[in-house]
Write a structure and sequence with these properties.
Layout: E1 6-10, H1 15-26, E2 30-35, E3 51-54, H2 60-66, E4 72-75, H3 86-104, E5 108-114, H4 123-137, E6 143-148, E7 151-152, H5 157-168, E8 171-174, E9 181-182, E10 185-186, H6 187-196, E11 207-210, E12 216-217, H7 218-228, E13 234-237, H8 243-253, H9 258-266, H10 278-282, H11 291-299, E14 317-322, E15 325-334, H12 338-345, H13 358-370, E16 390-391, E17 394-400, E18 404-409, E19 415-425, E20 431-441, H14 443-477
Parallel strand pairs: 1-2, 1-4, 2-3, 4-5, 5-6, 6-11, 7-10, 8-13
Antiparallel strand pairs: 9-12, 14-15, 15-20, 16-17, 17-18, 18-19, 19-20
Helix pairs in contact: 1-6, 3-4, 5-7, 7-11, 8-9, 12-14
């Protein structure tokens, strides 16, 4: 019975861990998470369905608590973000975990590492991942180790590097090893392997190399992504480009910090492909996706509905790049009823206009119509809105009465855009209003469009949230 099994997930706030946990819950497992910062789980949909232990792998006492009554533990952590000494932290973490697991009486450890040949020049990151697996196997608990290359899914570090770099540059310049081979694997297949390993004892004590259906060069990985997005990209290999330069550019131009991008890029100096077909023999029910399908599935997630709103805790304003989006937001609080604020935001547009610098909205609508867009089309009803309704050059995508409205832009632009407002009651009789602008650029023109219009957007959106707050106060006075 799955309900009898308590599963521990480490690395729960990482990409793979965050994808794995809902799958475990769906299958009926009891799940416990070990996390350094429980606040990062506040907005996770699964938060109320899991047990959380606050701590990390460098605290033996916490590990003893986290492993109590655990049947299987997933080791999904890495320490790349901790700086240049991350390898030492990787080793210390693995040793602490191995010792605690042996004393806990658990039945199995499942570890996700990196795919590489230890005999090659694989870089410190991949070597530390292989060393971590070696240390875990030194303990008394059987270990199932999976070794994967690039993991393809929206939010994956590997995929976000591919996405942001390919989208921005018509010409992509890389080192000579951009022609090395990799075997990308879809996140869906990774999860299939991780869960299947727990559901059969014959997988314990084995190392599995896992990959997708296609073996590609890193240059081909970028080219296929570009083709699926309708982008023309030229890729040039140049000798002498250092990992430090590449990681600096990645840290500047993508959502991936340089201290994480550097080790990942350094690991591409050798091939990363499956040589041992053991996984295909032991998991015949798992059918690997090809790379094009993996990317297509990741691109299907390019909508705000798939994003988690953890940035809202960061104060009155936030500005981030994430999962293909530029995201700009403002927050404000004031003493009115939530219904009043919701009434103010659902009254935007049409004959009422946009409350702040409405003439700019009119000009934007006029220009949009000139280039074949819908322009300002008004709205069906001056008071009521329903999902699917037209609202000027937007369409109402989501409505939660008293809480939220999200509009999808249908204007002509080199990318996809949304506007969203969220209303939430606060202690003390106040209401918080969050306004978020999303833009998913398509190609170099999309990035240029966003950066050129950024000062105008900030002016308009900052004024708009203040105008909405003022409108809500006036509405409440009139009640």
């Amino acid at each position: 019975m799955t309900a009898d099994k308590l599963v521990l997930v480490t690395g729960a706030t990482g990409y793979v861990g965050g994808c794995l946990i809902p799958r475990l819950i769906e299958k009926g497992y009891r799940v416990r998470l070990l996390v350094r910062d429980p606040a990062r789980l506040i907005d996770k949909p699964f938060r109320s369905q899991v047990e959380v232990v606050n701590g990390d792998l460098l605290s033996p006492g916490i590990l003893k608590i986290a492993m109590r009554d655990v049947t299987t533990a997933y080791y999904l952590v890495h320490n790349m973000s901790s700086g240049r000494n991350y390898v030492d932290r990787e080793i210390d973490s693995a040793r602490n975990f191995t010792l605690a697991a042996g004393m806990s009486g658990m039945e199995q450890v499942i570890y996700l590492g990196g795919l590489a040949d230890p005999g090659d020049d694989i870089g410190s990151h991949l070597r530390s991942r292989i060393k971590t697996g070696d240390i875990l196997r030194e303990g008394s608990v059987p270990v199932t180790e999976f070794r994967a290359s690039l993991i393809i899914g929206s939010g994956s570090i590997s995929f976000e590097l591919i996405r942001y770099l390919t989208e921005q540059f018509p010409v992509l310049v890389g080192p000579l090893w951009i022609h090395n081979r990799t075997q990308p694997i879809a996140i869906q297949n990774v999860l299939d392997y991780l869960i299947s390993a727990m559901e059969g004892q014959n997988h314990r004590g084995k190392i599995y190399e896992i990959g997708g259906r296609d073996v590609l060069t890193y240059a081909e990985v970028l080219s296929v992504y570009a083709c699926l997005r309708g982008l023309k990209r030229r890729i040039i290999a140049v000798p002498g480009i250092s990992v430090d330069i590449m990681s600096f550019l990645a840290g500047t131009l993508t959502p991936i910090p340089a201290e994480i991008a550097g080790p990942l890029l350094g690991g591409m100096r050798s091939d990363s492909v499956v040589k041992d077909p053991l996984a295909q023999r032991d998991f015949p029910q798992i059918h690997s996706l090809d790379y094009e399908t993996s990317v297509s599935k990741a691109l299907e997630c390019l909508t705000p509905g798939n994003l988690e709103s953890i940035w809202e805790i960061n104060g009155s304003g936030f500005r981030i790049k994430r999962e293909g989006f530029f995201i700009e937001g403002q927050q404000t609080s004031f003493p009115v009823q939530t219904e009043t604020v919701y009434r103010a935001i659902t009254g935007l547009g049409g004959r009422h206009g946009w409350l702040y610098l409405n003439w700019l909205w009119v000009i934007r609508g006029f220009l949009d119509r000139l280039v074949g867009g819908p322009g300002l089309r008004g709205r069906r009803d001056d008071v009521c809105l329903s999902e699917g309704d037209i609202l000027d050059f937007y369409r109402v995508e989501a409505l939660e009465p008293g809480q939220r409205m999200r509009l999808k832009a249908e204007m002509k632009a080199p990318g996809l855009g949304w506007m969203e407002w969220r209303v939430k009651e606060q202690p003390g009789g106040e209401v918080s209003l969050t306004q978020i602008a999303y833009f998913a650029p398509r190609g170099s023109l999309g990035f240029l469009y966003w950066y050129i219009l950024l000062p105008v957007h900030r002016l308009v959106f900052t004024g708009l949230i203040k105008a909405i707050a003022h409108q809500a106060v006036e509405i409440q006075k009139g009640l």
